[in-house]
Amino acid sequence: MLFTKIAKFGLSALIASTALTSLSSPATAEAISTSNSESVMTLSYAQNDIDTQSVNPDLNGKWYLEWTEGGVKHQGKLLMNGDSGKLYVDTDVTRRPIRQNIRLQRTRKGFILQGSNPTHPNYSPDQFHFELGNNPNDIINVENCSTGPCFPVKARQVWSR
């Protein structure tokens, strides 16, 4: 997916040309004359070149998650570093914590933390939906939607990196 940014010549053109040289994949710039004789520069670049860490709240660190699903209370300890992490889940019915890998996926409303490879054979990977408010650092709702219907989750960050 390509994004396009339009900037007036001058300081913006300098910033745009600097951005062109700092991108990891090819980008293009072209000058366009508008009807009012104003010159603009169009800068196109690939989505993976955007610093998306600044768009989402800082999840790095340790989180405690609590939810009840099917009458079973779950307590999770989430350790995140960038777009990946580990989740350790204790339930009322398991003897040891269930460990699973976690990957962060961005969405229009926030992001999804998708679990994989749980260490218990009868445990489905978790899928947490984090909804963001108007400020990208405000988490307004967290749900676990791993088994179909979504269940509310209490989430609190214990420490951050």
Explained architecture:
Residues 1-29 form the signal peptide. Keywords: Signal. By secondary structure, the chain is mainly beta. It folds into 2 domains: 2-50; 55-160, Lipocalin (Beta Barrel), CATH 2.40.128. It contains 1 helix and 12 strands, in the order E-H-E-E-E-E-E-E-E-E-E-E-E. It has one helix spanning 11-22, and strands at 2-8, 28-33, 39-46, 61-69, 72-81, 84-91, 98-106, 110-116, 127-132, 139-144, 151-152, 154-160. It has a 9-stranded antiparallel beta sheet with strand order 11-10-9-8-7-6-5-4-12, with no helix packed on it. A hairpin with a 6-residue loop joins strand 6 and strand 7 (98-106). It is globular. The two termini are 31 Å apart. 17% of the residues are buried. The model is unreliable at 1-56 (pLDDT under 50).
